[in-house]
Each structure stands twice: as C-alpha cells, then as structure tokens.
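BUG: 3D viewer hangs when loading the predicted structure for this chain

Environment: internal workstation, default settings.
Expected: structure renders.
Actual: progress bar stalls at 90%.

Input used:
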Amino acid sequence: MLRSPHPVMNPTRKGNVMSGKAMAQIGIAILALCIDSVSWSQSPPTWGAGSSPSPTAGGSASQDANAAADRGMYTDVTYTNAAKPGPQLVVLPGEIKSDNAGFIQKFGPNNIADYAELELSKANFKVLERADLGPLLNEIQLAYGAGDPDEARKVMQRGKLKTTKWIVKFDILKAEQVAAAKKGFNGGVASSLIGIFGNGSQASNAAGAVAGSVDTASSAGVWVIGMRYKLLDATTTEQVAQGYTEEKMEVGAKATSVAGISAGAKGGVSLDTMVQRLVQKSVWDIDNKYK
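Structure tokens produced before the viewer hung:
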C-alpha cells in the first residue's frame, strides 16, 4: 500500500487542530477587547482633583466642599416615554410672578425656557428652538399673549411652524423663604462656672480656658419654589393642559471654634439647580401624560 508523503492530521488529536472550545474562548476574548475598546473610546472627558489650581485642592476642606457640590450636580432624568417621538412644539419664555427681588435679579424667563428646551429634547419632543425662529418669536409671543387665534393661525402657517402642535410655557409662581432656624453654643458661661467651683486650681483654670474658647453656630433657611407649565394649542391658542410642582431648597451654614481651632462650611442647592429640577419634573409629567 502506498503511503501519502504528507501525513493526514487527525482532527480529534490535540496539538494538530485547535479544538472548538479553544476557538470559542479566543472569539470571546476578541469580542471583549472590542467592547472595551468601544467603551473606552466613548467615555466622556473627566477632570480630577489634580487638575484644580486651587491651593486647597486635595485637602480635607476641599474634599468636604467637593462632596457637597457633587450632590448639587446635574442629574439626568429617565423619561418614561422617551422612546416615543413627541409632537413638534415651541417653548415661549414664561413669567416670574414671585416678587422676591433676589430671584428676579438672578433669573429671567429666557433662563427657564433654555432648560425647558434641553429637557423636552431629551424626552424626544421635536423642539423648534427660539434661537432659530428669529423675529417670528416676537410675533408668536404677541399672538399667544393676546389669545388671538386668527393671528396665531397666520403666524403658524409660516415655514417650519406649520407642523407645530403645542406652545409650551413654564412660569415661576412662588419663590419664598418659608422657614429659618439658628442654633449655637458659647463657652463663656461654662468657663465662669468652672472657675467658681474649681477654687482657682491650675487644672480648673486650664479647663475654663478651653471651655471659654468653645463657640459653635449653625443656621438653615428653607425656600419653596413652585413652577407651573401650560400647553397651548398651536392653532387655537386654547389651553390643552397644565400642571404645577414645588420643591424645597435649603441653604445652611455651620461654624465651630475650639481652643483656637476653627472649622466651618456653608452651602445648599443653588437657584439654578432648583429651576432645572422643577423643569425636569414638569417635563416628566408632560411626557408621561400628554405624549
């Protein structure tokens, strides 16, 4: 019998042909590398504490301040019906009906409308941004401010506005401080008592000095901010729906001093963050009920 000069390899023998199990493992490893590569390439840029030029960066005071600031950072909201496209709409600058001077000085209707356009877009509504409307925005505001359906129809028949279903407004109806509290301790009285009952001993004098140096104080103020949204029919100017929501905002401070060593902190959720959160709650309601 003639033999082939090239021996036939047995696929069942180890070392000649790679087993199916080994090939599968290599395939899984390659897939994992690809996924890691894609994930890495899609990660947003971040800047750690090492990038801060602050002389206190990395210290305990910096860590405490950053931990407090992190709690006020922007948080994405998962909108229930975000997978479903919403109708086309225009956000009009709303009204600030609070007479609080600090709030009015910091915020205008355009600030609120900017947040609203951002969140409505994330909820998958087709938003015609005010910046793209140009002079038409003033005409829209006049027509819907006067509740004139004839004028509204004329305006909404132009260009991109033809397919607009809703006009949306977000108004601040309330911005007021509803509560405030202060607490504190001063060691002066305790120091005097230690001096009286300590008979002037060296130990009592030392204890009195430390007690007299103790000074603590804390204060907190709570604000309530309320927002209303309105959906107006783009053709008739009639109100389709409305909703209202409130949030509490706390601002506080504390300070402690003992034997010449002092510590303090102050902070709270900012007005910007509160308005943003109220807009998010309102948009969630619109997305959940009226899409």
